[in-house]
Specification:
mainly beta; Immunoglobulin-like; 2 domains; four-stranded antiparallel beta sheet; 14 strands; globular
């Protein structure tokens, strides 16, 4: 028991030093340089915002990871799943869909509204159910609750089903 605790206390956090590109298309490989990644990909998790990427290759100083679909404009984070230690990039990562230039609003689809309650105060985009799609949680000050919307979307169909409302969320 003492040996296990000592190993946990001396574990070094993965440290991201740089990424080879600030943006990539979904499934494109991003190289992450740093320290203390280790060589066992099953002991690492790499997140692009709230979505977990797929690790292709691992060494102690280099990770090659596929950018996942559904990535948000956010930081890339690397975590050691055994020690729980991790780090993030300083800059945010962008998803590039390679669209046409110049930008044209004619290429946008119609707005889709989702069911949140009165007084939308804040929202969080996170993968709550582990399906690699960003779900939505909203804090609603007017209704004094939190709403969870599960992302059931496919490539051609957007679906945000209201799955739960938590009432009486007083501070």
């Amino acid at each position: 028991m003492l040996c296990l605790r000592a190993a946990t206390l001396t574990a070094q956090a993965p440290e991201i030093r740089s990424i080879d590109k600030p943006y990539a298309s979904p499934s494109q490989v991003v190289s992450i340089s740093g320290l203390n990644f280790g060589s066992n990909p099953s002991q690492l998790a790499v997140f692009f915002g709230g979505i977990k990427g797929t690790i292709n290759t691992t060494s102690d100083q280099l990770l090659e990871v596929q950018a996942p679909f559904g990535t948000t404009h956010n930081k890339i984070s690397v975590f050691n799943t055994v020690s729980g230690l991790g780090s993030s990039t300083r800059e945010s990562f962008f998803t590039d869909f390679g669209g046409t230039h110049p930008f044209s609003s004619a290429n946008l689809k119609n707005q889709i509204d989702f069911a949140a309650d009165v007084g939308l105060y804040d929202q969080c985009l996170c993968d709550f159910d582990g399906d690699y799609k960003l779900d939505v949680a909203t804090a609603n000050s007017g209704a004094n609750n939190i709403t969870l919307l599960r992302n059931g979307s496919t490539v051609d169909y957007v679906d945000g089903k209201k799955v739960e409302t938590y009432r009486d969320c007083r501070s």
